[in-house]
Each structure stands twice: as structure tokens, then as C-alpha cells.
Amino acid sequence: MKQLTLVALLLASAFFSVAQSPEHIIVKTDQHMADIKPTMWGIFFEDINLAADGGIYAELVKNRSFEFTSPMMGWKEQRKGVTGGSLWVLNRGAANQNNPRYVRVQNALSGNYGITNEGFRGMGVMKDKQYDFSVWARWAKGSEVKLRIELVNVKGEVIGTAKLVTGSGDWKKYAVSFTSSATDPKAQLSIWFEGKGSVDLDMISLFPKDTWKNRTGGMRADLVQLLADLKPGFLRFPGGCIVEGRDLANRYQWKKTVGKVEDRELIINRWNTEFANRSTPDYFQSFGLGFYEYFLLSEDIGASPLPILNCGMACQYNTSELVPTDQLDPYVQDALDLIEFANGSVQTKWGKLRAAMGHPAPFNLKMMGVGNEQWGPQYIERYTYFAKTIKQKYPSVQLVSSVGPGAEDDRFRFLNDTLRKMHADILDEHYYKSPEWFLQNAKRYDDYDRKGPKIFAGEYAAHSVGIPNGKTKNNWRSALAEAAFMTGLERNADVVTMASYAPLLAHVDGWQWSPDLIWFDNLQSYGSPNYYVQKLFSNNRGSYTVPIEMNGKMIAGQDSLYASASMDKNSNELIIKIANTIGKEQTVSFDLEGLKKADSKAVLTYLQSNDMNEVNSLEKPLAVAPLTKEVEVKNKVLRATLLPNSFSVIRIKL
Ligand code: AHR
User: Does the CB atom of residue 652 touch ligand 1 within 6 A?
Assistant: First the structure.
């Protein structure tokens, strides 16, 4: 019996040591594979899910210029014991084509008469913070009407107030500031009218004083900070399908988004009506966040600007409207003028506008997208004309071209083959696929033509189920699959030169598409687990890749491991990224070939959860967030234990 127990013990320990024997991984630190472009990991911005209006653009008043389809949407007339008093929406028509509507208020003879704006699902305001109210107004002759501005909390209590006295008979902008005495995510703004007479109002606006870089009329600082923390290589804007529009009339036209904000023509946001079950009737584009602001944002966060322009095609999932090829010139001219706006001298027409808006120095635009998710020979015809004309004038501008909305269907194959034959610069691949697809496709680029066009993984995200039903969460399963896949992007950095998760931002009460990288309400914001995956990649980019192998092969699924390695020339560090996509711990031993120093210290940063459905939330923003620990290199070997279902980044000082 005793003998039997001993044998069993020996067998068990033999099995245990086999199971525990470390995976041997070789990192060839002295072999330079491919340079990793500074643009490698970037950001995709689209005004979807209230990303711009109601999101990063810090304006708190919804429908500030009464230009929504229903002019009083978001506004409520207030009548407390009122006799008389009226409000009319007037339309100046051609006299102010971009912003024709305003309201005329005839004050009541008695009682309290006013209007209230509900904000974007309320207004997020903070205790002791300053708020800047402004309005364009004009008083009727003899009018004595004064404006009492009140910020009201969700219980109806006044938490901030200011007054504007009677002003001029010509349109002028008036401004006054006040401090909020309380924090409230769902405050509202009221304007009460006092005194006899009538007044015309337009562009009624309320901004926090504390915006990103304290810019007047600027952006929400917490959201921009989350973007800046990514240290993105590029910023793609303004989308996405929003570039295309449901029809051509509704396409994104950059020239209508620059200059004074009060002159920017508002249009419906295409996501307003896109998904019946997530319809958002109050979703419009005010363009307070326009192309100038996008360029400035790119500069602020150190990202290369990548604008995408309409190429004479409306969204092919909607109307599919096409501009006849002999009428494409205005579209191509928009592209040429945009390059001048971004890079031209201040003597040029568009460079002069850039300078007038506050930025005489060029924005250093180097790339531009022609169309978003277009497909078919119609795209090729239009792309060809764009490319020829743009390259003639600006040969060094790199063009991003569409290869359709899928990454492996017939539309993709046609465009991929055709554009490769045309020697296109950069192909924009999109994939919203299952987590399993991402794991299986970690080798996707290993066989791509090394001499062909570069790849921009322009929109991707792991989706477990459909998009607008809210069931697809930013859970750890999706984030880990993306991390595994991204090691494949990095390993192929000679082919894949840019990549961005999509979409970027989503308001918890106003989204149309889920999952998204960053979620927010009117006061707070948090990064999803997918955000931290992106951040770990972009904050640990490295200058060039080096081989990392197991059993003589790159690591893309063997023993459920996925890995890439790079050297950072600036900090003189080796960076290993490794995803363990199985629910058991794995011990790995990295043999660091080519090291000069045998022993050194390293820092291992990891993301992990035992629950693959774990998500971050406003209540638990860091449920899945990076943690660090120290590890050591001894005799050119680093041993590390990879937790079940974890993603680790190891930085080794050389
Ligand atoms: O990222 C959301 C949408 O997905 C984009 O607007 C579009 O390009 C893609 O279909």
C-alpha cells in the first residue's frame, strides 16, 4: 500500500513538473525586424454616441441657435402666474443663411415668464466652478427687458445666477459668468425675463470655464485628458459614416465647420435616425467642434492629423447617392483647400483663415482619407480622380483609401486587388468581429506583401453580439482578444503602420453603438478594459520590432499565447507584450539573446480578470485596469508567471 502511494506521489510530481515547466521563449534583442512608425497606435474620432455635441464639446445648451428641425426642441417656455407674454421663432432666411432662426420674446405683463433649456440629458455642473453664459441679443426700441439667468438643480433649486441688463438695438454678443453652488449631473438653465418690452435671442450658450487648456468655448477636460493619456500617434476625424452622410446633402463638409461658431451651419447627425431602437431625435451637429478644433486637438495631444473627406459618395448602407464623375471638382477642391487650410502660408486664402482663427503656424498635415467605407468600381473611379488631382499638387500627402466595410468579403477583395495594382498608399481595413475572429486573425498580416500599400487598421473592435442592442459590452473577453490580435499588428509593423479602435466615445444615456472605448456621463468618464489595452500598446510602442519565438515560430496562438517584442531606442529598453488567453496560469521563461548585461530589473504591467465578462463602469472605473510588479532578469533569462487570461507588458532596462 505504502509503495503504491509512493508511486502515485512520484507520478503526480512528475506530471506536476511537466505541467509547470516554463514555456521557453526566445527574444532576439540584437535583430532589427521592422521600424514601428510613430503613427502606429492612434485614435478614431466620430460624432456618434453624443461624442461631440453633448460630449467632448463642452457646450451645455442643446439647440442653442434654434436650428434643430423642431426649433424649440430642448427648450421649454416657463409661465408662472403669467399674463400675456409670447415667444416666436423668426427666420431671417437669406439674411443669415447659416443660422437663420432666432426667438423673439415679448415679456409678460405680470408673473414670471422665461425659457428653460434641458441640456444634453441634463447639464453636468460642479460646485464652486465658474460657468460662462453668453447670448446674441437685440432689444426692441424702448424695451426694458432684462435677463435673469438661473442654473437650477434637479430638484428645481437655484444653484447659480447672473443678470444681463438691457442692451443694444443691434445684434451683439453678451456674456456673464457665475459660480455653481452645487454639483449636479442633470442641472438645467433658465432665462427669466424682467421688465417691459421685447428682446431677440440667438446662440444661447453655457460653457464651463474649466475646459481643456482653459480655452473659451472649448472641450471637456476629463475626456481630452483620457485621449492625451493614450499618447496617440494620429487622430482620424471626423469619422466614420458621418463623413458620407445618409445622403450627399447630409455629408460632412469641412468648410462649413470653420470660422466663427455662430456662422457654422448645423445639420442633423446621421446617427439621429440610424438605429430604430436607439433613435436619438435630438442629435444634431452644431460643428462647434469643427475642423480647426480637430487640428488643434491633434496638435495638443501630439497626434498626426488624419482627416477623412467625402469622395462624392453618400453612405452605401443608406441612399448610396453618387456625384457624377464630371461633377466631382468641388469635392476634390475641398480636399485641395483643406491641405491649404492645414499647411498653407498665411498669405493663402485658407491659410489666412487658419491664422485668423488663432493658428498662424501650419498644422503639418501629411495624410488624408478619400471616402470612408465605400465600395465598388464607383469608388475606384472617384478615388482615381481624387488621387490624381491631389498628388499633382501635393505629391507628398499620403492618401488613405477605402477597402470597404468588411475585411474579407468580395467588396474587400475587389478593392484590395484593384488598389494594390494602382499602387495606393494606405488601405483602410475595418473589422468589427467576434473575439474568436481576433484570436484567429493574429496572423492576418504575416503573409501580406511587404512591398505593397501600407495598412491602416482604421476601425476595429471585438463584438460578441450585435451592435445597437446594448448587449455587446466592453468586457475583458473582447479586450483580451484585441490585445492578442494587436501583437500581430505590431509584429507586422512594416506593413501595418496605423491602427485605431472604434468608436471612441459614448454617453451612457445617449449612445447608439456599443461597444466603445471610453464612456461618460455629464460629469464623469472612464476607460473600458479595451481602452487600457490600447493605452498599454501606445504607451509602450517601441522603435522597432525584434523576433520573439517559441519552438522557432512566432507566438500567435501556441499554448494560447500571443506575443510581440520591440526595442525602445530612446529609453534603451526591451518591451515584451504577451497575452495569455487561457484560464490558467502559465510560467514563461524568456531567453534574452543578444543582451550585453546578464542581470537587470524589469517592470511587468498587466491587465487581468478571472471574469471574462468583467467591465469597467462609472461606479467601478478601474475594475480592469493596469497593475505593475517588478521582475528580474538573471543571467539573460526572465521568468514570469502569466496570470490566467491576462495581458502583460514587460519593460526591461538594458
Ligand atoms: O464606428 C462606427 C461606424 O462603423 C463608422 O461610422 C463606420 O465607418 C463603421 O461602419
Answer: no
Amino acid at 153: N
- The residues facing 501 across adjacent strands are 460
SS3 content of the chain, % helix, strand, coil (to 5): 25, 35, 40
Check whether residue 184 and residue 156 sit in a common domain.
Answer: yes
* Ligand 1 geometric centre to CA of 515 (Å): 12
Any ligand 1 atom below 6 A from CB of 573: no
- Alpha carbon dihedral 199, 202, 203, 209, in 10-degree steps, equals 0
CA of 367 to the centre of ligand 1 (A): 20
Whether 268 is covered by a domain: the verdict is yes
Whether 277 and 190 share a structural domain: no
Q: What is the mean pLDDT of residues 89-108?
A: 97
Q: Are residues 456 and 329 in the same domain?
A: yes
Q: What is the pLDDT of residues 167-195, one digit of tens each?
A: 999 999 999 999 999 999 999 999 999 99
Q: Which residues are known catalytic residues?
A: 373
**Span 526-581, pLDDT tens digits:** 999 999 999 999 999 999 999 999 999 999 999 999 999 999 999 999 999 999 99
- How many angstroms is it from 291 CA to the middle of ligand 1? 19
Task: State the Cα–Cα distance between residues 502 and 483, nearest whole angstrom.
Answer: 14
What is the domain range of residue 86?
Answer: 75-208
Determine whether the shortest distance from the Cβ of 503 to ligand 1 is under 6 A: yes
In a domain, 60, yes or no: no
Instruction: For the chain, give the percent of residues with pLDDT over 90.
Output: 94
pLDDT tier, 17 (very low <50, low <70, confident <90, very high otherwise): very low
| Domain termination residue (choose one: 520, 541, 562) | 541
Closest CA to 641 of 581, 585, 583: 585
Mutate to test the pocket of ligand 1, among 43, 274, 372 (most ligand atoms within 8 A of CB): 372
Residue 620 placed within a domain: yes
- Nearest atom, ligand 1, residue 239 CA: 6
Query: 241: CA distance to ligand 1 center in Å?
Result: 5
